[in-house]
Write a structure and sequence with these properties.
The chain has six helices and five strands. With about 170 residues, it is of the alpha+beta class.
Length: about 170
């Protein structure tokens, strides 16, 4: 019986696997050095960056970062709590308005500070003490469109989400 099983298994054995594929490489150190005719009919491709793209910044001026001590009760978590509290962060504005640059320029004091980011105008007065960079840093864009400055300093921050409760209108030109 055992001999019958061994005969059956040897006769139904799987075929041998195929040999592994072979790869060739034409490059430095290969056996075919000196055979430059392989790519003779292909055009040479030069990739150059377009002007003003992919270039390193030319300015060597670096703005010195200064650590700012945040007062107790004015952290970003505290700001989030204030936003969710339902407090009036718009400074009494009840309806969104179309705001001209001239109207925006009227609101440029620490007690009444409006700023525009991405075409939206925000009353940032309640946010001034919560700004991680300090009051002077936030006041750099007071009464004007601060989109460019905002994108240069912290493009990764979502101003719409951060200031949604402070929206007073839209900037028109």
């Amino acid at each position: 019986m055992l001999s019958a099983l061994s005969r059956a298994s040897s006769s139904s054995a799987a075929p041998a696997p195929p040999p592994p594929p072979s790869f060739s490489f034409d490059g430095p150190g290969s056996d075919d050095e000196g055979d430059d005719n392989d790519n003779a009919d292909l055009p040479e491709i030069k990739i150059e960056p377009e002007p003003d793209t992919l270039l390193a910044p030319t300015s060597t001026k670096k703005r010195v970062r200064v650590k700012v001590a945040i007062e107790k009760g004015y952290s970003q978590l505290d700001w989030g709590r204030l936003q969710r509290s339902g407090a009036d962060l718009r400074g009494g504005v009840t309806q969104l308005a179309r705001i001209t640059p001239e109207e925006l320029a009227k609101h440029k004091t620490k007690e009444d500070c409006w700023q525009a980011y991405g075409g939206k105008v925000y009353n940032v007065t309640p946010f001034i003490k919560y700004h991680p960079g300090g009051v002077p840093e936030l006041m750099r864009a007071n009464g004007r469109d601060g989109t460019e400055l905002f994108m240069k300093t912290h493009a990764w921050v979502n101003a719409d989400l951060m200031l949604d409760g402070c929206l007073v209108g839209f900037l028109v030109r």
